[in-house]
Amino acid sequence: MKNTSKGLKGYAVPLTPEGKSSIDPPPPWHYSSDCMAVEYWADPAAVAALLPPGTDADPEADGRCFFWFLDWQFTGENDELTDPARYQYREAFVLTDAIYKGMKVTYCPYIFVDNDAAFARGWIQGFPKRLGSIFQTRSFAAPSPAAAPLAPGSRFGASVASHGERIATARIQLEEPITDPTSVFNRPTTIRRYFPQLVAGKQHVPAVDELTLSITDNPAIVNVWAGPAELNIPEVAGEDIHLIAPRRVGRGYRLSMSYSVTDLRILKDYRA
Q1: What is the pLDDT of residue 139?
Q2: In the chain, where are the structural domains located?
Q3: Which of 8, 105, 130, 137 is the most buried (most CB within 10 A)?
Q4: How far apart are CA 42 and CA 142, in angstroms?
Q5: What is the spatial distance between Cα 73 and Cα 82, in angstroms, rounded to a whole number?
Q6: CA distances in angstroms from 97 to 39, 41, 63, 241, 244, listed in the order given
Q7: Quick check: 255 and 224 in contact, CB under 8 A?
Q8: CATH superfamily label, 28-269
Q9: What is the pLDDT of residue 106?
Q10: What is the pLDDT, as a whole number, of residue 232?
């Protein structure tokens, strides 16, 4: 991408004469991850209160959410995967079941990430990313009590913290493989792309306010295992995610996932 008026280059800020300092390359963006996800049910009223205009709580879901933990590797078109210091990262987020114009979707009200490039890509898409510290148990090929193989009885843990406060802790124990991932993960994700203004007199009117639909190309979900799970979302200073803490916890899942991003669909422009 090029700023034709001054010859500055870059897909995202900072724009520079050579464009090398841009925090992110232009799409396509390619992602691969090992993941943990815990299905749970929160207070339906608290879930509904987080949804943006035009999106309604799914009455059949009864407050169902998924808490995800992900260990990502990213690349664009310039061998970015060989620069892991810039483009590997870890992430944690909540997805709540919802309805948009009759379509069953999920909505992302909270998300934490530990890398600035991923942070910027998220804001470009609409994910409300904040900096956090995220960890999860990894699997390794060499046999060991620490290897956490994908096998019955293996245990996995994950956590996310922000500003020194532990936001959530999860544990799962693998029980059985899931042959059809779409029987569990089958809703597209909506997000709110929101950027405020700082100009005096306009601070109550956002510069951008859109409901978007995340578009993933060539998605793949493999090696899905399920089993009993634990999830704790405590009340901590400066946060209100505990309002959608579990009333009931379902199964936990360990899986690997990949997809690419080349586009974004705008469902509704609230400024219009």
Answers
A1: 98
A2: 28-269
A3: 105
A4: 39
A5: 10
A6: 11, 10, 7, 16, 12
A7: yes
A8: Acetoacetate decarboxylase-like (2.40.400.10)
A9: 98
A10: 98
The span from the CA of 34 to the CA of 40, in Å, is: 20
Provide the 10 A C-beta neighbour count for residue 210: 20
> What is the spatial distance between Cα 16 and Cα 59, in angstroms, rounded to a whole number?
50
Length of the chain, please?
A: 272
- How high is the pLDDT of residue 1? 52
Q: What percent of the chain has pLDDT over 70?
A: 98
Torsion (CA) 255, 95, 92, 139 in degrees, nearest 10: -10
Mean pLDDT, rounded, for 227-241: 97
Closest CA to 97 of 216, 240, 241, 244: 244
Q: Give residues with Cβ within 8 angstroms of 213, minimum separation 6.
A: 105, 188, 189, 190, 264, 265, 266, 267
Contact 179, 240 (CB under 8 A): no
The tokens for 36 are 């943990």
How far is the C-alpha of 25 from the C-alpha of 76, rounded, in Å?
6
CA distance 27 to 11: 9
Q: pTM of whole model > 0.85?
A: yes
CB 65 within 8 A of CB 37: no
